[in-house]
Design goal:
Blueprint: H1 2-31, H2 36-58, H3 64-67, H4 70-85, H5 93-117, H6 122-143, H7 157-173, H8 177-198
Subcellular location: Cell membrane
Family: Belongs to the UPF0126 family.
Protein name: Trimeric intracellular cation channel family protein
Length: about 210
């Protein structure tokens, strides 16, 4: 019963996460003046892309949206629904930042769970979590012809690594998956929200010699 409860929580948070990612992608599509099909495609790619890349790299099949095709309707529908409420998005900015942070930690933990279930080495498990948490946003920005937000904004991939390590450390300590999920998520949320609030970021490399 306890493991079923954990699965239920993870699945519910996963659905919230993919909806939020699809909606933020729809806003990016709107800034690029994409048509409705482009909005729908970009929303689905952003929400499901990280998990798809992870599964392809790990040779883990079927892909989530192949096994559960309704996810395409969820993400595409969420992206299209954003068109109707686009004018409200500025007022919902803080809510979406919070939900996006939840999405990051949930995607990361899901990626770790899948790689760990395959018996892969620790570094691969952590990388799987980071790929799941971050690559969808990278695909969104690449398709929008932008430098990925991952490389130019507040701590993001670093938070994903921290979530993965915390979750795995707690799992190794034997506290149980429920507490490991809670601990990893809490640490990730606190650091990500603090990074947004105080503009924490890694040092930037700036090279201005045009002659080289």
């Amino acid at each position: 019963m306890y493991s079923i409860s954990v699965e239920t929580v993870i699945n519910a948070l996963y659905l919230v996460a993919i909806v939020v990612e699809a909606m933020t992608a729809a806003i990016a599509a709107g800034r690029r003046q994409m048509d409705w099909l482009g909005v729908c495609v970009l929303g689905s790619v952003t929400a499901l892309g990280g998990g798809s890349v992870r599964d392809i790299v790990l040779d883990h099949h079927p892909l989530s949206w192949v096994e559960r095709p309704y996810l395409l309707f969820v993400t595409g529908g969420a992206a299209l629904a954003t068109i109707a409420i686009a004018r409200m998005m500025p007022r919902l900015r803080h809510l979406f930042l919070f939900l996006d942070a939840i999405g990051l930690v949930v995607f990361t933990i899901i990626g770790c769970r899948i790689a760990d279930g395959l018996g892969l080495p620790l570094v691969v498990v952590v990388a799987s979590g980071v790929i799941t948490g971050c690559v969808g946003g990278v695909l969104r920005d690449v398709l929008c012809a932008q430098v990925p937000l991952l490389f130019r904004a507040e701590l993001y991939a670093t938070v994903s690594v921290l979530v993965a390590l915390t979750y795995l450390a707690l799992m190794t300590s034997g506290v149980g998956e429920g507490l490991a999920l809670l601990g990893g998520s809490s640490i990730g949320l606190l650091v990500r929200l603090a990074a947004i609030r105080f503009h924490w970021s890694l040092p930037k490399f700036i090279y201005g010699d045009a002659d080289y």
